[in-house]
Amino acid sequence: MKRFFVAAVLVLAVMFSLQPALAGDKLDAVAVSVAESFLDLIDHQDYQASWEQGSFMLQREFSPQEWRKELEPIRPLFGTPLSRSLIVLRQRERHPGYPDGQYALISFESTFSQKAQAVETLLLVKEPDGEWRVLRYRFQ
């Protein structure tokens, strides 16, 4: 009986110690999914929809027309996306130039039909409604 009790306590301890890690993995998966959906809109040159899905801060910084002007002259030059591999995923509570909050920095190594290697980096913010939204998009 004593062994059973000790084993049960150990099992519960392991389960509860994994809980934060599992919650973090779920957060990571949600943030990456939002980033991938945003990139899909950019890939299809649907800049209006990408602006609409962007964060409040992105929308304050750029009008829909300004957002289009940022992306339209450059992004189509890369051609069709062929592959994307996640290379960076960092969550943080602070990001320079922005108020404290929950941020996710996500980078993909990408290949395109007219650009053999590029890095696409997105900064996401968790907004007051609890949703992750893109705050910044940069490609090099």
Describe the structure.
A 4-stranded antiparallel beta sheet has the order 1-2-3-4. Helix 1 (2-43) runs antiparallel to helix 2 (47-53) and helix 2 (47-53) packs across helix 4. It is 45% helix and 30% strand. It contains 4 helices and 4 strands; from the N terminus they run H-H-H-H-E-E-E-E. It has a single domain (24-139), classed as Roll (Nuclear Transport Factor 2, Chain: A). The protein has 140 residues and is α+β, with helices and mostly antiparallel strands. A hairpin with a 2-residue loop joins strand 2 (103-112) and strand 3.
Question: What is this structure, in a nutshell?
Answer:
This protein has 140 residues and is of the alpha+beta class.
Q: In percent, how helical is the residue content?
A: 40-55%
User: Could you say what the CATH architecture is?
Assistant: Roll
What order do the helices and strands follow?
HHHHEEEE
Tell me the number of helical segments per DSSP (H or I, 4 or more residues long): 4
Main β-sheet description: 4 strands, antiparallel
Instruction: State the distance separating the first and last CA atoms.
Output: 63 Å
Write the layout of secondary structure elements.
Elements: H1 2-43, H2 47-53, H3 56-61, H4 64-71, E1 81-92, E2 103-112, E3 115-126, E4 132-139
Helix pairs in contact: 1-2, 2-4
